[in-house]
Amino acid sequence: MYHLIDGKKTAAEIKSEITATVSSMKAKGIRVPHLAAVLVGNDGGSETYVSHKVKDCAEVGFVSTLVRFDASVSETELLAKVRDLNDNPEIDGLIVQLPLPEHISENKIIESISPLKDVDGFHPVNVGRMVAGLPSLVSATPAGIMELLKRYNIPLKGAECVVVGRSNIVGRPISILLSQKGVDATVTVVHSRTRDIAGILRRADIIIAAIGIPGFIKADMVKEGAVIIDVGTTRVDAPGTKAGWRLIGDVDFDNVAPKCSLITPVPGGVGPMTRVSLLLNTLKACRR
Ligand code: GUN
After folding, report:
1. Ligand 1 centroid vs 13 CA: distance in angstroms?
2. From the CB of 25, is ligand 1 less than 6 Å away?
3. CB atoms within 10 A of CB 134
4. Pick from 198, 140, 205: which is nearest to 174 by CA?
């Protein structure tokens, strides 16, 4: 019988640890962490994500500032605001919610953020430092997955890990973190051009599914006793629910879970860990 990896519960535990840290900072008269989030336009998904970030900050006692721009804001104006926030000594962490409107270069904006305040871990300096095994701000989803694996005592040394997907924000960084010296997993990255995904997956002790195709991983692709981390969050219509949609992971959960030793649910697995990792990064940026 499989067990669930409860990301919601683990994230709640980490949040209370952060809350305790913030309380002791306050008691010592130390300035508490401050996150600034920049939101351009009113994309529905982005609105939701940013409101979660602001709410999460309040819950643990961080200060947050939300800076809003109309979708018509110029790149120059946005760059000037980032510079302003970079230079503000009261602000520890700075994120610009993506995607941005077409007329603004996301790369240019990301590169304008001070690497010391880049709590998304998207700046090439942080990516490079992470790859080199140097202290860095690691992006929230891969950092959250590593924390989940650690807190569930999942053995990684020599483990066969297969990462499905090679995105800049999940697949690529998690493959690097898992193969780092001291973590020592054996990592294979499979993607849309891989010849025999099923055959490779069947060898895996641990599968990290981050391909963004709902239900992609089927029972016959999974070894008995495998550990699965499902990063997929595809919204599908769900008439009759309050939101009108629900989230579906990359794993065909009902059929795959019985073969696993441990598996993350969607929702309630990786998602809450991503949210809490942004808080951990902001705390780290503040304490530097
Ligand atoms: N858009 C979707 N995910 C993210 C994220 O983690 N950070 C930012 N800045 N934008 C996003």
Report:
1. 23
2. no
3. 10
4. 140
Residue 288 makes CB contacts below 8 A (sequence gap 6+) with 116
Please give the single-letter amino acid code of residue 187.
V
Q: How far apart are CA 13 and CA 152, in angstroms?
A: 13
Domains, the chain, ranges and CATH? 29-114 (3.40.50.10860), 140-271 (3.40.50.720)
DSSP 32: P
In the chain, alpha helices (H): 7-27, 44-60, 75-87, 106-112, 124-131, 140-151, 171-179, 197-201, 253-256, 270-287
Q: Please write the tens of the pLDDT for every residue from 44-68.
A: 999 999 999 999 999 999 999 999 9
Report residue 50: phi and psi, to 5°: -65, -40
Angle at 250 between CA 133 and CA 3, to 5 degrees: 80
Rounded to two decimals, the pTM is 0.96
Query: Which residues are known to be catalytic?
Result: 53, 97, 120
